[in-house]
Amino acid sequence: MAYIAPIHRPSSVRHALKLQFLQADEDCLAVAKSNRLEFYVQTQDGLELRESISIYGRVTILNKIRPPASPTDHLFVGTDRAMYFTLFWDQATSTLRTEKEFLDLSEKSAQPSQTGDRCTIDPTGEFMILEVYEGIITTLPLTRRGKKKADVEYGIIGEPAWTRIPEFFVRSSAFLQRTPKSGEKGDRPRLALLYEDHEGTVKVRVRQLSYTAGGGGDPIAELEDIPNSPTSPLDRDCRHLIPISGPPYGMLILGETGITYFDDLTFLTHTQPLDDATIFVAWEKIDTQRYVLADEYGKLYLLMLILDAQEKLERWRIDVLGVSSRASVLVYLDQGRIFIGSHQGDSRVVQITEEAKISVLQSMPNIGPILDFTVMDMGNRSGEGQGNEYSSGQARIVTGSGAWNDGSLRSVRSGVGLEDLGFLGDIPHVVDLFSLKSDTSSQHVDTLVVSFIDETRVFAFSENGDVEELLEFKGMSFTEETLLAMNLPDGGLLQVTSSAVRLVDLDGGMVRSEWRPPQPITALAANDRHLVVSVGGDTIQVIKLTDAIIPSTQRTFPSGQQVACVTISSELSGVCAVGFWQDSLVAVLNLDTLDTLESVKVSSEEVAVPRSLLLASLFPDQPPTLFLAMADGNVVKFDIDPCTYKLSSKKSTILGTQQAVLKTLPRADGTSSVFVACENPSLIYVSEGRIIYSAVTAENTTCLCSFDSAAYPGAVAIATADGLRVSLIESERTTHIQTLALGETVRRVAYSPALKAFGLGTIERTLEYAVEKIESHFKLADEVLFQELDTWPLEQDELVESVIRAELPDGTGGLVERFVVGTSYLDDAPAENHRGRILIFEVTPTRALNLLTENQVKGMCRCLAIVEGKIVAALVKTVVIYSLTYPSPSRPTLAKCATYRTSTAPIDIAVTGNLIAVADLMKSVSVVEYHTGDPGVADSLTEVARHYQTAWGTAVANVAPDTWLESDAEGNLIQLKRDQDGPTETDRRRLQLQATICLGEMVNRIRSIDVVTQPGAAVIPKAFIATVEGSIYLFALISEAKQNALMELQTNLAERIQSPGYIRFNEYRAFRTQTRQNEEPVRFVDGELIEKFLDCSPETQEQAVIGVGMSVDEVKEMVESLRRLH
């Protein structure tokens, strides 16, 4: 039994609309992202999300209507299953409500529209038409007449009527503004259709709409052809109609090489060529004479209509505003601000400047469409598989996202955010920060010490948040760098610089005691009773902190042991920990004698030097945990025995490429968390008995400290390259995204932990003299910095199809890490010619790519994998096994070992042991077994099982022994099981269908994961799923003990939670194709629905647990644990 829950919700924007929805006289932006609706309002800081709600269906239509007596607009929504409804915002309850629904307007025998669903409203607001099927137009009246003919109420949806038209392939449509001279039937709406006839000729036809109410029967709608419609053919590249709602009226027809104006009064057309050919994809009206256009290549244009004295169109001018993401939809907000909703890039809010250019005001990350992804476990350096849960923050998903100029590599990681509370100013080059109390009786800190390389500055904070820089403070030295400043329990103030240790009386500001070392202090740590310093890098000095500074134990190490860092803890008062420059050594020393109690070599690499040590009490009532920040970017964790001081349970997590700074932050429960300032700032803390590494949105952080002041309780002070600020670390984990913009489509992604790099297969599109040029590359990118290291261009007309990392023979009996790339050619060469290549690359010590060998193949190399040390290549109709041999030591070659003929074309392969699951283009999944032949006998590939139903596969992955998860092109997930103990050979060869669900989004990639879960876990994570809409899902198998409970809970919640439009959950999630449709999901649990249990009222929760076999509190605990998985 299967479980699925979203990790990252869809981010691709296809539809958006400005309307007054949440409040009267206040505009908001409604955005549709796959099956979600989001509502934004404009603030001084940009668009702010106010409401987000899921829809049981993928949104394909958005429009607005205003019913009579309603102070706000209502939202008309259409879904991919031809279900339509209107929504309104109930201000009294602050909830979204359904006003009217049409459960199904579909024509079962009709062909869906090839150009997408369209919804158009007549300019007078009397009619709305839907174009969902080829050759069929659905008309819905939006008026209701009273007893008098003149009494008309607008915004009330009436009964639909269907009309068949001969124009099947309609590219665009628009209602024309009604004018006094629009004909003898001028009061009737006129609909313009831009269509392509059966001969491929593009034409425009204008039809008049008439609607007759049923009056007890079915309503009738007719679309009559206007005789004066333009009949001359247009350019084949015309794709959009823009109706002009004021003088000069008519419409504009957008083409690739020119723009045509259709005069609404004379029915004449006029074409004006473009300076540069382009492909327009979206447009938006600013006013009756200005329009914003967007093209395929991300350019934005301003189209200006120039009128003569009689308000007739004289000409038009088009100017380039700038370049942004490729737009799916444009929405004009106000005052020159435009929302660019994008499917293949980040959505943005831009401002049209006075210079007729655009500046980006706000960017909304979009990781869709995800073409490929890999899982990088930062806490597991042993291989490519994942060992940590995604929610731990140690695992991140690296995606190949976007397309063409919007293509990028994205890192998706679980983490927490920062809320800025105050900004102290642009203060660069801060070395360290310390918070102090200026009064011993104070409950909060009120002073911030800012240390620089050659000075110290102090800022005082009042209770209301006012800040003042102090010229002197309690006798502290301001003329040198402060290494440590802290309050002592007896009212003293400790300041340590490289040249002195001072103990100052907090009340009088007098220096109680001072100690000056013979050499500079290079490292130090302190608790309430002891200060440990490294003097000159080779001597450890212990100082007792009482009323005076009392130097006690001292130990000088030989020249081969230079001290790099030290740490001390109040919980382990008798010891300190020391890190050394040489041999990557860390030791635990007795504070009284400085004898070595424990010594551990952390790493065998020379660059892995401990640079920062910290003993932090993460767990309540347990000894502190030792953390080491290494010079190579690793953070290493050790458990320390409080009796023997032995170090154990070593765990290394890669967080950067350079040394990190570790700082302790107190928590409300008396424990601590650890902030790691590095390239990937992270917060280490304990939740549910496990250590969590959460990413933090604190880019470019150099240092920080806790700053629990009266004005900013629970805050932290953070120094970055941008300045010094006071922030609050949020407690709720969210998704954090890091981007490497490439400007190319990242088609394939492979990750090599051994090489610490990503291998990327990219496709670049450029324009040269208005001609598209396609080039493909294989790139190497650093795993942490997300920087491009090297690029290998492929041949002309060659495209990358697949990329993997693999351990392959090195010719000397050993194995070495390589990248393997499969390609195809675009040219129209004869079939007997080679149509693809398999390339094997090595990464040199200088991190450059070197081609070891190539092999020509007679078809595109769609997929690659490794089985028993050999390469599996899925070609056009064949799966081939290759072995890497070395006829000569310097030039390896690929030798064919075995082949298997597929049904049509393999789309994806998944290897487990010697079994290869092949997802076919049309024929679902077949399982092939590979056998190495005996001496003199060829290797073999034998089909051992098959799924006999038709499925247009897109991805496949192994999720359990003899169990596979497949996705199809219609948005379904299918779990298949091979029964090796079946009673007959037919049963053993048939893949049995175990579970099905409609995800509603097309899946591009499924990656198996291997995660160690806690005992008694309700579900066991098995795979991540990525979609074209930018969603990432967690797939898991439900433990046997929780199967009945979760299924019963899902059934109860589906009956009690109403979705917008009153769409039934079972109908939404039921498996569906063009030829088959189930009534409900089969043995699949939707985690998004299950998690809604926590938001239900107590009464609904009581009803939902009926038959579950668990109490409300037990179900809450289970659901909360499921939510924490992501």
Report the end-to-end length measured between terminal Cα atoms: 20 Å
Content of β-strand: over 45%
Q: Which regions contain 5 or more consecutive residues with pLDDT less than 50?
A: 381-387
Question: How does the helix and strand content classify structurally?
Answer: mainly beta
CATH superfamily of the domain at 104-277: YVTN repeat-like/Quinoprotein amine dehydrogenase
Number of strands: 87
Rough outline: globular
As for the CATH topology of the domain at 104-277, it is Methylamine Dehydrogenase, Chain H
CATH architecture of the domain at 104-277: 7 Propeller
Outline the biggest β-sheet. Answer: 8 strands, mixed
Compute the average pLDDT. 89
Keywords: Nucleus
Main location: nucleus
Subcellular location: Nucleus
Family: Belongs to the DDB1 family.
